Amino acid sequence: MSLVEVRHLVKRYTADGPNAVDDVSFEIRDGEIFSLLGPNGAGKTTTISMLSTLLKPTAGTALVNGYDIRTQPMAVRRSIGVVPQDLALYGKLSGRENLRFWGEMRGLGGPALREEIDEKLTLMDLTERAGDRVETYSGGMKRRLNLAIGMLGNPPLVMLDEPTVGIDPQSRRYILDYVKELNRAGAGILYTTHYMEEAQELSHRIGIIDRGSLIALGTLQELTQMVGEHEMLRLQLYEPEAGQALADGVRGLEGMHQASAADGEVVLSVAAVETTLPQVLTTAADLGVSIRNVEIREPNLETVFLHLTGRALRD
Amino acid sequence: MRKLSTLALKEVKLAFRDVGAIVTMLVTPLVLTLAIAAAFGTGTGGLSNVPLLVLKQDDGQISRFVWEALTAENVEDLLAAEMVFDEADARARVEGDEVAALVIIPPGFSDRVIPVVGRAREALGIDLLSLDAESAEALPEEMQEEIGRLYLESREPDPDPVVVEIYASPNWRISAGVVRGIVTQVLEQMSMTAQGTTIIIEELIARGVPEPQAGEGGAEWFSGVADGGFESFADSKLPVRVEIVSPTGRGFRWLDYSATSMAILFLMFAVTAGGRSLLAERQAGTLSRLLVSPTPAVAILAGKMGGIVVTGLMQVLVLWGATTLVGSYWGAPLGVVAAIAVLVLCASGVGALISAWAQDAGQAGTIGTAVTLVGSAVSGTFFPRWNLPAWVQNLSLIMPNAWGIEIFSALQMGRGLVGILPLLGGALGLTVLYYVVALIGFRRQFA
Fold it and tell me: Into which CATH architecture does domain A1-79+157-164+187-224 fall?
């Protein structure tokens, strides 16, 4: 059975503007963690906003827990939990008050809600600070509370929109472990991220989205097989601004599949490291580019993204 | 319904946990009210013994009336008028803030205000204003005919109106305003009486009373005119009033006026800030989260506005209690409660309107502050409303502040709930208008 069935979903914000989401179709199966992986602006948040009924699709539709997002928005909302990318919390209320408020807005109440609030506070390690105003919390604590609110009512499907943006490694680990725990307890998860590592660690299946289009879909294994025997080289430079020149310079080398520069690094997808790397180093020397570090990686989601788009995931 | 109360309660909690908001909502208006009361006193008018100079360059009857009005018994506590003769010296005293204002009555003032009186004095050497029926009949017929002729001639309008200058010190604005009010009132009374006299004379002529040239009937005609017109003018009382005296005997008091006008001003700040919070929630992401909860958008909006209204009610009720403790009077309790409820609703409409049409919270804040301050100023928050020109008073009725001041003034003058119902109706009508326009904006934003 499918928790989510997306059918040719399109979103255009202005009549003559580009499609923010362009004919996207996928499904999320029962008990599955499904990740939408893509760079910023790829259309992840727009997709999740349509599936959570915040935005109306321009075309296409989706069934969420069996309810049509166009015609049964209230039923969809009752059947899902949403963890937005923004820290959607009231700073002047305490953590416990925030949980109670959002729980009541979900239609929960009474002793059951009180028990669940205690349980969520314990799970998120927030019990000691539950009575303090949220504005005094650290970023990680706020992220955990943001997550806990989305889980209220234990919905069968939880949508998490980049829940680990801008937090410390410890809180990130907390959240990733909790998502896995939640999934083990039976909830289906739609998880959007631009962190390849998170998608790799969490997901049963991954959809790679870029410029509004779903460009690849499958398990991690299925996706990495798409790039064949290619390996990835990551070059860190002393002069970050020289990255583009080096990427352009090595693009024509034998065995070079893709070359991209971003954030002071050059990411290369190559057929055989042992033959291509010496040529890359020679080209760098010719161009006067100093390389600080070379990292060789097995095919992964970043390689897949590079393979499919010609750009690094962080471009 | 439960979600509505949850939303409203959340709004109230947020408002009262914000130190800045509490200062704006409660502390500032209270302190301002007390400061104004301390500055002007809590007694009648808040003003007393306003030092005033009068330069009377005209010895006519009407100038005397103005002088008498400014020194009359009913204003003797309010004004301390002093006759002066040296204009330069008088102006210097105003500039030195020694006195509030200098009233300059120009030469020929009386004669120009009612020309026939001046012409009769000039041509015949008689004072029409001092004539009664008996002395008029005793005048020679030729003189009566001449007076009739002068009257007909004097009906030509004066192209150059006479000007009474009130040279006021900028540091005594309110006092100068009061003086202007008294002088204007005297002159308006004069004008009305003169017009009445003219109408009487013209009616007599129209009824076929012999024209001045008719000879025989001249004395009768003139004495009738004198009885009905000039005498009434001469004897007419000049009811100079600065304050409005209510049936309850309560007069205008700065403490009462400022307590209510300040409460409405800061209510406006609070509700426009509340309206702005809707946009702030949109920017913070909590509005999106609310919209994906199983709660209809209309309920979210209603709950939010409900919270803003409850916060406003609590704010004004607290201010009512606090200012009453320091001696302010808002009116009969039932009327005050109704007025507060209506005005809070009305003010929340302004908040809704701004938040529905502003681009973001920052813009809403700027617009809210500007609308509140300008609206308050033109409504008469900082000075007596009735000192404003009539068109400004009428225009300001698009603001809750103006309705609030009108309603509370009526209550403070002794009207009860029934007496203010028309005013409450007007404010409610404005509220409906605000919310209709706001809903159009909200539909545009959230559709």
Answer: 3-Layer(aba) Sandwich (3.40)
| Longest Cα–Cα distance in chain A | 72
User: Considering only CB atoms, which chain A residues are within 8 Å of B17?
Assistant: 92-93, 133
- How far is the alpha carbon of B307 from chain A, nearest alpha carbon, in Å? 14
pLDDT tens readout for residues A161-196: 998 887 888 888 888 998 998 899 889 999 999 998
Whether residue B389 contacts residue B402, with contact meaning beta carbons closer than 8 Å, is answered with: no
Using the 3D structure, point to which of B175, B210, B235 is the last residue of a domain.
B235
Q: For B323, phi and psi rounded to 5 degrees?
A: -75, -30
Asked if residue A73 has pLDDT above 90, the reply is: yes
Distance from C-alpha of B137 to C-alpha of B220, rounded to nearest angstrom = 7
Are B34 and B67 part of one and the same domain? no
Quickly tell me which residue has 């205008």 as its tokens. B252
Answer for the pair B38, B46: CB distance below 8 angstroms, yes or no: no
Clarify whether residues B287 and B155 are in a common domain.
Answer: no
pLDDT score, position B215: 43
The answer to whether residue B297 sits within a structural domain is: yes
pLDDT value for A99: 96
For chain A, how big is the Rg over CA atoms in Å? 22
pLDDT (mean) for B110-134: 71
Top residue of A50, A104, A145 to mutate, by most chain B CBs within 10 Å, is A104
Confidence of residue B399 (pLDDT cuts 50, 70, 90): very high
Residue B100 neighbours by CB distance under 10 Å: 26
Nearest to A88 among B2, B284, B296 (CB): B284
| Cβ contact B293–A88 (<8 Å) | no
**Side chain identity at B161, as an amino acid letter?**
P
Q: Which two tokens stand for residue B335?
A: 């009327």
Whole-angstrom Cα distance, residue B206 to residue B227? 17
User: A52: pLDDT confidence band, cut at 50, 70 and 90?
Assistant: very high
**Residues from chain B contacting residue A89 (CB–CB below 8 Å):** 286
B1–A contact, CB cutoff 8 A? no
* Alpha-carbon dihedral sign for residues B50, B51, B56, B61: positive
- Residue B139 contacts by C-beta under 8 Å, 6 or more apart in sequence? B126, B147, B219, B222
**Domain of residue B310, residue span:** 2-41+250-446
Q: Enter the ipTM.
A: 0.80
CATH class of A226-309: alpha beta
DSSP 8-state code for residue A230 = -
CA-to-CA dists, residue A57 to A7, A19, A66, B152, angstroms: 11, 11, 17, 84
Residue A14, burial from CB neighbour count under 10 angstroms (0-12, 13-18, 19+): exposed
Domain count, chain B: 2
Tell me the domain boundaries of chain A: 1-79+157-164+187-224, 226-309
Coil vs helix vs strand at A264: coil
- Whether B270 maps to a domain, the answer reads yes
List the strands of the sheet with A33-37, edge to edge: A80-83, A157-161, A188-193, A33-37, A205-210, A213-218
pLDDT exceeds cutoff 50 at A84: yes
Question: For residue A211, which of A19, A7, A16 has the smallest C-alpha distance?
Answer: A19
pTM tops 0.90, yes or no: no
Q: Same domain for B275 and B381?
A: yes
| A212-254 pLDDT tens trace | 999 999 998 888 887 777 788 889 888 888 888 998 998 888 8
Q: Which residues of A touch B2 (CB under 8 A)?
A: 104, 109
